[in-house]
Amino acid sequence: MDRWFAVARSEEVRQGHVFQSALFGQEMAVWRAQSGGVNAWENRCPHRGVRLSIGEQIGDELRCRYHGWRFATGTGQCTYMPAHPTQKPGAALCATVYRSSERYGYVWASLQPREDAPLLPLPEPGTTLRGVYVDAPAESVGERLLLGYGLDGERRLCVRRLDPYLLIGEPRSVRSTGDASADAMEAATSEAAAAPVLFLLQPLDSRATVIHACIAAAISAAERLAVLRAHNTRLLAIRAAVEQAP
Amino acid sequence: MSRIESILWDDWHVVAEIARLRRQGRMTTTLLGESLRLRRDANDGRIEVDRKRAAADGSVYQPVGAVELRYGFVWVCLGTPVRPIVDFAECAEPKRLTASAGSVRVAVSGLRAVENFLDLSHLAFVHAGYLGEQPHTEIHPYTVEPLAHGGIIATGCRVYQPKASPVAAAGFDVDYIYSVLRPYIVVLYKANPIEPRRKDMIALFVQPVSEETCVAHILTCYLPHDADPHAIRRFQQFIFGQDRPILENQLPKRLPLSPRAEFSVRADKSSAAYRRYLAAAGVRYGAIAEA
Description:
- The complex is a heterodimer.
- Chain A is built from 4 helices and 16 strands.
- By secondary structure, chain A is α+β, with helices and mostly antiparallel strands.
- Chain A has 2 domains: about 5-110, Rieske [2Fe-2S] iron-sulphur domain (Rieske Iron-sulfur Protein), CATH 2.102.10.10; about 125-245, START domain (Alpha-D-Glucose-1,6-Bisphosphate, Chain A, domain 4, 2-Layer Sandwich).
- In chain A, strand 9 (about 95-105) and strand 10 (about 105-110) form a beta hairpin.
- Chain B is about 20% helix and about 40% strand.
- Chain B is globular, with a radius of gyration of 19 Å.
- Classes of the chains: A alpha+beta, B alpha+beta.
- The interface between A and B is medium-sized, with 22 and 26 residues.
């Protein structure tokens, strides 16, 4: 698939932890080197196939849990095999590295990137929301989002599809819903509610998807919790609707 | 599903620990995808094994003819036995403590479990503080040869072990011999901590449940310095408990036989020989055959 996908939020990829992600059924180990760079690698050691996501980040290297082989950030080159401490690993001995990049608060990866494939232009500053895992194919998730983004059928955002894995929700004119609690939430989130929301769909495999939603606005600390809660509630409602669809 | 190769179908496999079947009275298990029902007769203590067969009006259980009790385990052959159950002379020696050390279910091909048992260079990492320890990670050259009747033997293996067995008081360089006797059966002999010239024996009988699931049955045959069979059992299950999460995180779950599928180095000599032996013997169940 010739494009970039968000495979993790930047804040999920921290020192000392290897984040497990996937694209189209290909598991990935996403990790951050001490020097700051992020890596998205095939989630198996080239030696005996053990998931690298159970390995350890040590400085600028990832160490496999099984035999302690170390692989360098960036290239994936094996740097050290403890069974043969004086032997320099061959140039072909590498973890399988996917092209990756970090921007807009996400780690992006591509299984087969074109040399010139650009990253999606996302708004800056933006606010990234917690990714929501949905037990359904990306196509079904996209179709459900197109029906509207709101609670109880009330359409707060008008959603359109930019491509199969990217949708944008734009607000309609604000009006009273007649529901006091919803109105209160709307008022509290007025500024954020006026901002578009991008939905980045990450197809984990043919049956599961992560919705990464990104609000095209900076949100004040005072508003932040209410906004995140409001969106989380909406996204969970969408998940429930998609998963329960026949 | 296509017919399973004779080297597995017409051979003996462990399906249960006798002590556990005695305790429970009855058990169900699966061997090579076939559902089995094991029963111990309450009156005469006889053990019977039935196999579930599809019938026009549902399924029926039919007795399995080839059932043997050996080394504390129930052995079954689903086809026509073409050779006897593996023979261990050590288990017949007087004053040896022969004991089953339990059965562990693992969500991976049994061939991966056998290969892990043969593996020397994981000891310092997966079993750190027991069967190995950093910085003693280097694997020195050892010898691997084919066995006359199929299988392989690895000799001259030597690793430093902080706690080689339940009776080891201090670390020492342990000499090992490994032998793959059947595609799913592997045994090791390791120097005893108290009598380094004599060897303790540990065998792994791997029950292929499906191509991607197995039960590893552990047999220990120790020199009599280990008075407590419970301590042996606890130690072996603790050690296998360290291997299990590694095994269940191997991708793919079946063992690739092509030398190009996974990268091997000198320390993996026995693993590479094991894969060659499986390929030459035509073992496909639990394997990914060479393209």
